[in-house]
Amino acid sequence: MDYSLTKLKQLMKEYNFNLKKMYGQNFIIDENTINNIVAKSQVDKDTLVIEIGPGAGSLTYKLALSSKNVICYEIDTTLKDLLHENLKDLDNVEVIFKDFLKSNVMYDINKYKYKKLFVVANLPYYVTTPIIIKIIEDNIPVDRIVVMVQKEVGNRFKAEPNTKEYNSLSVYLNYFFNIKKILDVSRNVFIPIPNVDSIVIELNKKTILYPLKDTNLFFKLVKDSFNQKRKTLKNNLKQYNLSKIEEVLNKYNYDLNVRAEQLPVQVFIDIANNLSLK
Ligand code: SAM
Questions:
Q1: Rounded Cα gap, residues 209 and 278, in angstroms
Q2: Closest residue CA from atom 23 of ligand 1
Q3: Residue of the nearest CA to atom 6 in ligand 1?
Q4: Do 75 and 124 have their domain in common?
Q5: What pTM did the predictor assign?
Q6: How far is the CA of 71 from the centre of ligand 1 (A)?
Q7: Mean pLDDT of the chain
Q8: Whose CA is nearest to atom 19 of ligand 1?
Q9: What is the spatial distance between Cα 89 and Cα 99, in angstroms, rounded to a whole number?
Q10: What CATH number is attached to the domain comprising 225?
Q11: pLDDT for 230-257, tens place per residue?
Q12: Residues enclosing ligand 1, CB less than 6 A?
């Protein structure tokens, strides 16, 4: 594949494709950045890769060379011909022209045999969080996620308690994954140039998860605890059995006047398990 900007512009003209802001289309035009992401992703010939938003296929192409199969979801059907042209040499890529958020991913990946399942993507920024939440809530059995995201959003994913970035999503993600930033990416490697900085983060599925009696209750508890960030648990969780919550908090030397942003994931797990009737 020819990675030059001249070639991309020529293909865009030939296939009558215009970049669309509404789909978060900032395409990478720097081959080194692509090589770096693929190397850091650690995909190999045992890996099935899910890519959300292949765009013109620049990341897809190199992922396909290093992995067993790549299955992509692309919302923009006007990319069909251009993408087909760029990926025509490959026989291990499937492109599904659908909104990832509305796709039955478990059904789509079922026909593949693989040892490892990774998500690798330069995510559309307007739906980064819903995409990550879908991966968790649909129970897609990913081993590793390597995604380019807006710097601020990535910082929230890996935030620690007592920081302003720590929120309910940080708690969910830290329950399931070990999270680390692996790359800073200059805004100059994109077309068009975005007005925010980007980072690539890795989320590695934890091999041992602390047992949760009721995962839905945990999700709800965390969401409600952060409902009004500056309020105490006593105020945010009025509808819960507060004495059962207090029991756990006391064990960790907190009381009901604590705020959710002060609590590590382990405390939320213990509270959810104490509240659960199961
Ligand atoms: N992977 C390409 C690259 O790195 O150059 C393009 C990345 S661009 C930031 C995001 C891509 O996601 C676009 O191609 C866009 O059309 C696609 N996209 C946006 N929303 C989507 C959705 N809900 N489902 C699937 N693809 C989506």
A1: 18
A2: 99
A3: 55
A4: yes
A5: 0.93
A6: 13
A7: 96
A8: 23
A9: 25
A10: 1.10.8.100
A11: 899 999 999 999 999 999 999 999 999 9
A12: 23-28, 52-55, 58-59, 73-76, 99-101, 122, 124, 127
